[in-house]
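Posting for a labmate who doesn't have an account.
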Amino acid sequence: DENFDSTPQTDELINSFNLSSLASGDSVSQNFNLGSFSAGNLQLIAVVEFNQDEDITNNQLTQEFIINEPPPAFNAIVVNEIMYAPSTGEPAWVEIYNQTDQTYNLQNWQFADAANTSLITTEAISISPGEFIVLANSCFRF
């Protein structure tokens, strides 16, 4: 459902299949590859059209999915330095480094240790190749 209007359009069709017969009480499954999608929201609509169906009120399902960006490779973003015991009045901080040739969005990433988890940001903040970012917040506990 490319335009998110919850109405199936013929130009949005991904797959279709026909059955010659389906007895009362029978069911059928259909598997197919949807292909690849870019990160973001995706809405799919499944529609059943069966001439002998006496109850057509349950013949359409609309489902929204969130496609996440692929996770970075292991050790793509590394902790470069930690200030766990700052001077009085100064915040604890962590410096992270992107040691890859790709840019990563830190939105909704979390920083965690064995006891605590902190959300880095809900905003779209990118860390570019070779870039350092210092994370400082009172919610970090070391």
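Reply:
Got it, the structure tokens are right above this. The first strand starts at residue 40 and ends at 47.
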